[in-house]
Design a protein that fits this description.
alpha+beta; Immunoglobulin-like; Neutral Protease, domain 2; 2 domains; 10 helices; globular; binds tryptophan; binds zinc ion
Length: 477
């Protein structure tokens, strides 16, 4: 028998075995994206994170972050490999279930940390990943041009995560669809503060460093996780109901922000009357220096403000605790469920506190007379709030103002009482969960079965351009 003939079947078998092994491995590797229509690389597939334990040390002088992330997760499929999102930073080691795991970086700028555990994780099994990393965390530039990620401030740093900035400072499943509990410990040079989400569980001096231990018991999306390091004046108090309030203010902003921050208990109480029980175990605010951030963000428990906030902005960010942080969008396409609601909260607040009624604001916007001070009057009609044209537009005016107009159109059809029930019910049904726009329209239809909402959805939520005039009151025969 010629040698080649004898070898042939062996070679074929080998190739088959390799091909099968390879396909099997690929089938059981978690996806490197969560399937978001606007941010396909954000998040990952194949597992669900239950808890993050982040142990961080930051040195403002050299801007260096040293971190350990212990991630407790549950496998949603067999996992021969899985991915975490982490941009920049040097990864020193990865362990899965206490054993060193192989890992490498993929994706633009290496923002996918692909981990291959010694033994595949079985579907349904819990597993713990420990990632040790260090480096100079990066600023992430949004598709809309704004800055997030790890921002160096005058005397420290500020982490802002919407939509994908969390990958700059800890490895994780960075998509709003995967919320988790957190324990965040931050060591900083003695004398500086480290402020984060949740409640401060401990503060100790270790060597020349102050160590702050923050605990977040309720589910949190990583885009509203934050750490602020620097000089802050800290005030701790409680609302009338006993909810802890932790406010940290840049020393230059104390006088300018005192009055509005003093109204946090009143705004939370109003939110509870309007939207139902406050979803978290503490409230507060972080006010950084005016040049330290470009915008406010509804970071969980305590929103970040770039300088002293006005009352409207405080109302907006506090309303996000219900709409965005507790009821969290399924994907970045559902952004109007955050911003339309937070904007409508501002309108409701004004209406109930001697300002314009929501109807008046709606009418001004519809007539094009609202924006003279902010932007051009047509911006609000640029695209439908339920379908932003691309990732750069998810923070555009249609998502905010026209999103609020969708809610106002619902209110016009249902009347105030049913509408109030819809706001509270929506916050209750999806409390600490995720929801998308289809969930919302279906919910509204269930709560007002006699009303035809089809034109509102077609024209206001999904329609291009400025909808035709609101139909006049139905005439009684
Ligand atoms: N959510 C923030 C607010 O309304 C604004 C914001 C910051 C934002 N970054 C964003 C909105 C990225 C969309 C995308 O207070
Ligand atoms: Zn907002």
């Amino acid at each position: 028998m010629p040698r080649s003939a004898a070898l042939f079947p062996v070679a074929v078998l080998l190739v088959c075995a390799l091909a099968a092994g390879d396909a099997g491995a690929r089938r059981s590797a978690g996806a490197t994206g969560a399937g978001d229509p606007y941010f396909p690389a954000a998040g990952n597939g194949g597992y669900d994170v239950l808890h993050y334990r982040l142990t961080l040390g930051y040195e403002p002088g050299v801007r260096r972050l040293v971190g350990e992330a212990e991630i407790e997760a549950r496998a949603e499929q067999d996992l021969s490999a899985f991915s975490l999102d982490l941009q920049g930073m040097r990864v020193g080691s990865v362990e899965v279930a206490g054993r060193a795991a192989r890992f490498h970086r993929e994706g633009g700028g290496g923002h996918e940390l692909v981990v291959r555990p010694r033994a595949a994780v079985r579907k349904g099994a819990g597993f713990t990943v420990v990632v040790r990393y260090s480096g100079l965390p990066e600023v992430v530039r949004d598709p809309d041009g704004s800055e997030e990620g790890w921002l160096v401030t005058e005397d420290g740093a500020l982490a802002l995560g919407e939509p994908v900035g969390a990958r700059a400072w800890f490895p994780g499943n960075h998509h709003p669809g995967d919320k988790a509990a957190y324990d965040i410990t931050v060591a900083v040079p003695a004398g500086l503060q480290a402020v984060s989400n949740g409640e401060l569980r401990g503060r100790t001096r270790e060597g020349g460093r102050d160590v702050f231990r923050w605990h977040v018991g309720e589910p949190m999306a990583s885009y509203v996780a934050t750490v602020a390091v620097g000089k802050f004046a800290v005030r701790r108090s409680r609302t009338g109901d006993g909810l802890p309030v932790y406010v940290a203010v840049d020393p230059g902003q104390i006088a300018a922000s005192a009055e509005v921050l003093g109204r946090i208990p009143e705004v939370v109480a109003w939110g509870e009357r309007t939207f139902g029980p406050y979803p978290f175990s503490s409230a507060g605010a972080i006010v950084v220096g005016e040049g330290d951030a470009e915008y406010a963000l509804e970071t969980q428990n305590r929103p970040v403000f770039p300088g002293a906030p006005g009352l409207e902005l405080l109302v907006h960010e506090v309303a996000h605790q219900w709409f965005g942080n507790s009821v969290t969008p399924e994907s970045w396409r559902d952004m109007w469920l955050n911003e339309g609601f937070a904007t409508y909260a501002e309108w409701l607040w004004a209406e109930e506190h001697g300002g314009d009624s929501a109807q008046e604001v709606f009418d001004l916007l519809y007539a094009g007379d609202y924006f003279e001070k902010k932007a051009d009057g047509d911006a609000v009609w640029a695209f439908p709030p339920g379908r932003p044209p691309n990732a750069a537009r998810i923070s555009g005016s249609p998502v905010y103002e026209r999103g609020a107009m969708v809610l106002h159109r619902i209110r016009e059809e249902t009347g105030d009482e049913v509408f109030r029930g819809i706001l509270r019910g929506w916050a209750a049904v999806h409390r600490h969960g995720n929801a998308d726009t289809d969930d919302f329209t279906a919910y509204v239809e269930r709560k007002a079965p006699g009303v035809d909402f089809s034109r509102i959805w077609a024209d206001w939520l999904y329609g291009e351009g400025r909808p035709a005039a609101v139909p006049a009151e139905k005439e009684t025969p």
